[in-house]
Write a structure and sequence with these properties.
Elements lengths: L1 E2 L17 E2 L9 H9 L2 H4 L2
Antiparallel strand pairs: 1-2
Length: 48
C-alpha cells in the first residue's frame, strides 16, 4: 500500500481500510520478502 501523505509504500498483511492509502498492487505474495521485492519494482513506490 502507499500512504498518500508520506508517499511511502509499505507491505501489509491485511487490506487497509484507511482512505489515505492506496493499494498499489492487488496481487498477493506468499512471503513478506516476495512482497518487498515486488514493491521495489512498482513504479509508484520507487518514485519520490
Amino acid at each position: 500500500m502507499r500512504d498518500a501523505t508520506t508517499k511511502k509504500c509499505t507491505v501489509v498483511d491485511t487490506k487497509p481500510t484507511s482512505t489515505t492509502t492506496t493499494i498499489v498492487d492487488n496481487g498477493t505474495y506468499k512471503t513478506k520478502t516476495e512482497a518487498e521485492t515486488g514493491m521495489k519494482t512498482t513504479k509508484v513506490c520507487t518514485e519520490q
